[in-house]
Specification:
There is one protein chain. Helices cover about 45% and strands about 15% of the residues. The protein has helices at about 10-25, 35-55, 60-70, 95-105, 120-125, 160-170, 190-205, 210-220, 225-235, 235-250, 260-265; strands at about 5-10, 25-30, 70-75, 85, 110-115, 135-140, 150-155, 175-180. It has an 8-stranded mixed beta sheet with strand order 3-2-1-4-5-6-7-8, with helices on both faces. It binds nicotinamide-adenine-dinucleotide (NAD). Nicotinamide-adenine-dinucleotide binds near residues 11, 31 and 33.
Length: about 280
């Protein structure tokens, strides 16, 4: 039975994932290597829960209970007693492989180790552990407390039992799971990222301003948010990392990250989280 969940990485996604588990009654241990990231995560969670209370979707007592179920740590060593793990550190293969190796050594052998990766191979992460049957992708969408989809990725060695446990868990969180096979970008980013990349090429080539491109996609295609606003929201470094995985993994030049995206990331213009991207924040 899963009652205690470890979330590794307290950034954009990790804090949202920790919040939804805590709101659903799980005890949560949130780990991040950087203490400041934990402080930011706590503030973000408090703000998000306050909004739910303001809108009458959550009682003040339930908010306090959710906050009471959340504990934060700077070391993975605290995850020895958890029943399930979601990893949400930066989208970098070496860093994730290292974390999976450590989680494999620290956690109980029956524990499922899931990754919120947007594009990195679940099979490769599973192979870094001695329990590849218990490694799967649990790809939440941003912002996690509001978005209902979770893409569940079955690695080459993931067992049907592990997939069933993750499916049931998603439903307990009030989310809708959709299964995807372990190919670069899975379903969501295989389709979304080429569109965002094309929008960035359109900016680079002067086809339209970011405002013009976003307006065309919002009013013309009925997208709730334009692709450049969305890219800023996701993080331009995250978009670049995903495009690199698509490009390398699928080998097709159509996934080549736009040079303007590379340049913006190199300049530290990462979108919302850095205050500057295609728009200023
Ligand atoms: N941003 C999005 O919209 C989005 C959506 C879906 C999935 N994802 C995926 O979620 C994951 C996290 O993305 P994010 O946007 O939250 O990143 P982020 O940069 O906001 O946060 C990553 C956090 O991980 C921490 N970290 C890095 N290495 C660590 C380690 N070894 N141990 C513990 N903590 C460590 C960092 O300090 C940071 O706080 C990535 O795999 C990304 O592809 C992101």
């Amino acid at each position: 039975m899963i009652t205690r969940v470890g979330v590794v990485g307290a950034g954009t996604m990790g804090n949202g994932i920790a919040q939804v588990f805590a709101q659903s009654g799980f005890d949560v241990k949130l780990c991040d290597a950087i203490p400041a990231a934990i402080d930011r995560a706590k503030a973000t969670i408090e703000k998000s829960l306050a909004k739910f209370v303001e809108k009458g979707k959550l009682s003040a007592a339930d908010r306090d209970a959710a906050l009471g179920r959340l504990k934060a740590f700077t070391s993975l060593d605290n995850l020895g007693d958890v029943d399930y793990v979601v990893e949400a550190i930066a989208e970098a293969l070496d860093a994730k492989t290292d974390v999976f190796k450590r989680l494999d050594a620290i956690t109980k052998p029956e524990v499922i180790l899931s990754s919120n990766t947007s594009s990195i191979s679940i099979t490769v992460l599973g192979a870094a552990t001695k329990r590849p049957d218990k490694v799967l992708g649990m790809h939440f969408m941003n912002p996690v407390p509001l978005m209902t989809l979770v893409e569940l990725i079955r690695g080459q060695a993931t067992s049907p039992e592990s997939m069933q446990t993750a499916t049931d868990l998603c439903k307990t969180l009030g989310k809708t799971p959709v299964e995807a096979a372990d190919y670069p970008g899975f379903i969501a980013n295989r389709i979304l990222m080429p569109m965002i990349n094309e929008a960035i090429y359109a900016v680079m080539e002067g086809v339209g301003t970011p405002e013009a491109i976003d307006t065309v996609m919002k009013l013309g295609m009925n997208h709730p948010m334009g692709p450049l606003t969305l890219a800023d929201f996701i993080g331009l470094d995250v978009c670049l990392a995903i495009l690199n995985v698509l490009h390398e993994g699928l080998g097709d030049p159509k996934y080549r990250p736009c040079p303007l995206l590379r340049r913006m990331v190199a300049a530290g213009h990462l979108g919302r989280k850095s205050g500057r991207g295609f728009y200023s924040y």
